[in-house]
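Aim 2, interim progress: modelling of the adenosine-5'-triphosphate-bound target.
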Amino acid sequence: MRVTEKAPAKLNLSLDTPMRYIDGSPQWDMVMISADLADYVTVETHEHPATIKVYTDSGFLPNDQRNLAYQAAHILRSRFHRHEGVTIHIQKNIPVAAGLGGGSSDAAAVLRALNNIWELGLSLKELAEIALTIDSDVPYCVYSRLAHVTGHGEKIELLPDQPHYWAVIAKQQISVSTPQILRQIDYTRLSHLDNQHLIECLKDGDWKHAIEYMDNVLEPVTMSVYPEIKRLKDKMVSLGADVAHMSGTGPTVFAICHNESRAKRIQNSISGFCRDVHVVTLL
Ligand code: ATP
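Predicted structure of the complex, ligand included:
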């Protein structure tokens, strides 16, 4: 049986890390949303060969156990004592190592697909619990809809759907290493966010005020190394974005606009110096 799942990119409307756990990993306090910029993950099972194979149309992604999609198939197969082979084809549209959670979303898509193919009957909550063993963004990506995410990434409170807004998603030719940025965080210098205000606005459907509380405390950390990320963000705001922020640890910056024509205008203006630019709706 063969199933194709859409694996959307995630954006951090808000990102804070209140502290580091004793093992050194960050505690998260994030509001996340998904965007209609997606990979397509096709999963097929078969009796022979009883191996996991990953194929991608991106030349520089690993296709062995380092691929998060491979890990998702491996974990579900072992947990439920399945012996079939699994073949995964990933059509990659989300920029890689961009702060858009592309690998995590591919892994979540494999979990959803195999749950369906093997008729495991797992709820999204149960899949999200399994997902945490892969990476911190995978539980959110199992749902891929507006949510408040805390803890290691496993505590997920779904928030009501919002009116359709547009996002301009722009990635410059910069490679940011997430582990390196996380190591650089000086917790005594972070100015923490009040995500509760943001969440209240989103629960009230008050997007106009919600925008005022969106922020990413890691912007100063990444932007001190890559000042061009700040320049791109400032440019998007000066071109009329409702708000613009870095996603995750960067380097991608997204701008939110209440209409498509404004989003297209921003895209046209920045595409001269930033070639990887997408105008999409928020999901
Ligand atoms: P994170 O913030 O979790 O690092 P990201 O959005 O910045 O995520 P990804 O596109 O998920 O970045 O890629 C991060 C790393 O994960 C890359 O080094 C890449 O080689 C590896 N990776 C493993 N599997 C995948 C996949 N299916 N798609 C993209 N990257 C993958």
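The chain has a mean pLDDT of 95. Residues 34 and 144 are 6 Å apart (CA to CA).
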